[in-house]
């Protein structure tokens, strides 16, 4: 229902034909939401500009009215939690409080792990969304490199990135905290896995200058991994508190828009490992419910989400000493040899779908007994009235 940012190679972007919802006025979106409510087994999902930082008043009004008009829950993503911005969580959850008073329900999706996300100066990414940066990063390659090597241009880019208008993207401009990923030139041999601030100190450069020179050696193909800024005890404590809210659910969705940029899929096994051997922010039984029964109830999945008589035999058996997820790696197995990030689960003893084993000891068996879930047939309607 809301705007979604896609890589510049997307055919709709090339033809300058964005999807209709990018131009729809609030009245049209509310009318569409009302139409959704006329069909069984339906739900709403919205992505608006304020999702990543803090909602504007008009955005809260729109989400509340859409849910109320449809009589359906509306989920949005993603709720980012950072103890250095304590006002963000109550502001974002204000939409949920207002929705309940208006006959709707708004559910915030939030990730229980720090999601690996790579950056690049060569292709469209979140850096392009920093105010003023898109004008430089959208230039043809030779001109882009020349502009990035200009100290005055870099200074202006950093100034814009540190301004209030940059919002949640401000943290992406701390280039000393980037880790160098894949490199493609002889000049950059041995840099993979190193932190930019350490390389910059050796070279007597500021971090942004150092990063630009590394990327220029690779014709801007270098893969960059920003280190998270919200990996502190206070932020994790705030997450644990926020997860208890009745309108907060673990998870996230981008409809596959960032397959080569972000790796959020391992949040389930990594979260379980964290609950057993790491921070232990919630008991294991609660963690399992948050990953299975909670989403099944929200989306109305029939006979799924819990172990009970008459329910589908969809079961996961895991080793509590090993359950986790491996590091994110870039693989090329999509059509056209396109890349995606992959992270393999570990500690999985068995996965059964409809009672048939599909995974044994971390390896797929080749069995495919599942089926696509269809609205109405496999779901019940979850309303708000």
Describe this entry's structure for a reader.
The protein is an alpha/beta fold. Among the domains are: 1-110, 2-Layer Sandwich (Transcription Regulator spoIIAA); 126-226, no CATH class. The protein is 32% helix and 14% strand. The chain has 13 helices and 14 strands. The strands form five sheets. A four-stranded parallel beta sheet has the order 1-2-3-6, with helices on both faces. It has a four-stranded antiparallel beta sheet with strand order 7-12-13-14, with no helix packed on it. A hairpin with a 2-residue loop joins strand 13 and strand 14. The chain starts with 10 loop residues before the first helix and ends in a 21-residue tail after the last strand.
Give the helix level as a range of percent.
25-40%
* Name of the CATH architecture of one domain: 2-Layer Sandwich
CATH class of one domain: Alpha Beta
Number of strand elements: 14
Strand arrangement within the widest β-sheet reads: 1-2-3-6
Model regions low in confidence, pLDDT < 50 over at least 5 residues: 1-13
Query: Which series of helices and strands comes N to C?
Result: HHEHEHEHHHEHHEHEHHHEEEEEEEE
Please name the CATH topology of one domain.
Transcription Regulator spoIIAA
Main sheet record: 4 strands, parallel
Q: Quickly count the helices.
A: 13
- Overall 3D form: globular
Task: Give the N-to-C terminal Cα separation.
Answer: 21 Å
Q: How big a fraction of the residues is strand?
A: 5-15%
Computed over alpha carbons, the radius of gyration is 22 Å
Secondary structural class = alpha/beta
Average residue-wise pLDDT: 92
